[in-house]
Design a protein that fits this description.
This protein is mainly beta and about 425 residues long. About 5% of the residues lie in helices and about 40% in strands. It contains two helices and 31 strands. A five-stranded antiparallel sheet has the order 28-3-31-30-29, with no helix packed on it. It has a five-stranded antiparallel sheet with strand order 8-12-11-10-9, with no helix packed on it. The protein has a five-stranded antiparallel sheet with strand order 13-17-16-15-14, with no helix packed on it. The protein starts with 7 loop residues before the first helix and ends in an 8-residue tail after the last strand.
Length: about 425
């Protein structure tokens, strides 16, 4: 059985992204009710209405956090008065809230649908932070990185420097450790499994859920592997501790502890990775996308292949193209749009890229230097092809509106890329 087949996109319609999965009404795209049969009337008014929804461009604005790049940890009802410190991965929740991993503050923040920003979990404080489960505002994290949110509002966190996967459950808000020993390791080291604190990770990065909420996929950066954590027991109850960890892709280490590389092939016996960062699940196609050392790989039916980027791990400037002709420079966050295109946060190129299922790479937002070809760092809002970012890191796509949220790490804020249409044209922000 395809390990990615049980996803919301197959069962109920969804988009799964690096931060998790966002449910979509399963009837989207179908003709139902009073709309059925409307094709029988095809006057100019119908064509005009149809064209009103066609995307004509994209506008970048600052959604939350400082507009001057200032860091901090201030909560506020006004999203532009709140502050972050190096926000990393982000995820949309089922209630329309946006969850933000506030890396430098060792906290998990929440942006409500009305824009108000609060601290969901994490006591915070200067490093070295500690490792403690418990009530959300008493629990501690140590440079958290990855996040995923399930359909019930349960939040999963890759707690990087504590080497564990944490769970935040609501009502009452509580933090527990799902898997990981709290020290760096590589357990299971082969094709076996390990449960709860017996399991050991390296520096954990991106997370992605399958839509049914059965499995959590983990980019295990320093072990050069992609892991999977089973999230339900034999009775179908959600686990908040004692998650069962296995390896999905990445060869076991040799006698010298080495397994890094850029080889394609069988996921567990032939393929090698170097520092995997981000993960996204394509619900319809059953593909797991992985961003790693300057390229994008796919895992499907037990096979790893290169989708786009260099074949040898070399970085490059903002070069568009197909497959191995394109270049990335530290691609981090991944997300899927409603058309199955992969959106990539190309951090060191300071741009947001788009990759089609066939591996065609274009620059979606951000600018390049005409002389050097490198991406341009900055904080400018405006049309997508004129806007600038500074180390964009995490991504989340709203499947209903097509809006893309970007955590702009070095600008200490969250940016928003909004589609423009004839009905809602782009305007200067």
């Amino acid at each position: 059985m395809n390990p990615f087949a049980r996803v919301w996109g197959v069962l109920a319609g969804c988009v799964c992204v690096v931060g998790g999965c966002v449910g979509v009404d399963s009837t989207l795209g179908e003709t139902t009710g009073s709309d059925a049969g409307s094709d029988a009337s095809t006057g100019d008014d119908d064509a005009s209405d149809e064209n009103a929804g066609v995307t004509t461009g994209y506008m970048v604005t600052t959604f939350a956090g400082s507009t001057t790049g200032a860091s901090g940890s201030l909560d506020s009802a006004n999203p532009l008065e709140a502050t972050f410190n190096g926000p990393r991965n982000i995820a949309l929740g089922p209630n329309g809230s946006l969850y933000v991993v506030d890396y430098g503050n060792h906290k998990i923040r929440k942006i409500a649908s009305n824009g108000a920003i609060s601290t969901l979990a994490g006591k915070g404080g200067p490093p070295p932070a500690t490792y403690a489960d418990g009530a959300c505002l008493s629990a501690t994290f140590y440079y958290p990185r990855g996040i995923a949110v399930d359909r019930n509002g349960i939040v999963y966190i890759a707690d990087e420097s504590n080497f564990v996967i944490r769970v935040i459950t609501p009502s009452p808000c509580t933090v527990t450790t799902l898997a990981g020993s709290g020290t760096s390791g590589d357990v299971p080291s082969d094709t076996g499994t390990a449960t709860g604190t017996v399991a050991a990770f390296g520096l954990v990065q991106g997370l992605a859920l399958d839509a049914a909420g059965d499995f959590l996929y983990v980019a295990d950066y320093t072990n050069n592997k992609v892991r999977r954590v089973t999230l339900k027991d034999t009775l179908g109850q959600v686990l908040v501790t004692n998650g069962v960890v296995s390896t999905v892709a990445g060869k076991a280490k040799d006698a010298d502890g080495n397994n890094a590389g850029h080889d394609n092939g069988l996921a567990l016996s032939g393929a090698t990775f170097t520092a995997p960062f981000g993960i996204a699940v394509d619900a319809k196609a059953g593909i797991l996308y992985v961003s790693e050392n300057h390229d994008i790989r796919t895992i499907t039916n037990g096979q790893v292949n290169l989708l786009a980027g260099s074949t040898d791990g070399s970085s490059g400037n903002l070069i568009d193209g197909t497959g191995s002709n394109a270049r990335f420079y530290r691609p981090y966050g991944l997300a899927l749009d409603a058309d199955g295109n992969l959106i990539v946060a190309d951090a060191a190129n300071h741009a947001v890229r788009k990759v089609t299922p066939d591996g065609v790479v274009t620059t979606f937002a951000g600018t390049r230097d005409d002389v050097t070809g490198a991406g341009t760092s900055g904080a400018k809002d405006g049309p997508a092809n004129e806007a600038t970012f500074s180390s964009p890191y995490g991504l989340a796509v709203d499947p209903n509106t097509g809006v893309i949220y970007v955590s702009d790490a070095d600008n200490n804020n969250i940016r928003k890329i909004t589609p423009c249409t004839a009905q809602h044209p782009c305007a200067t922000p």
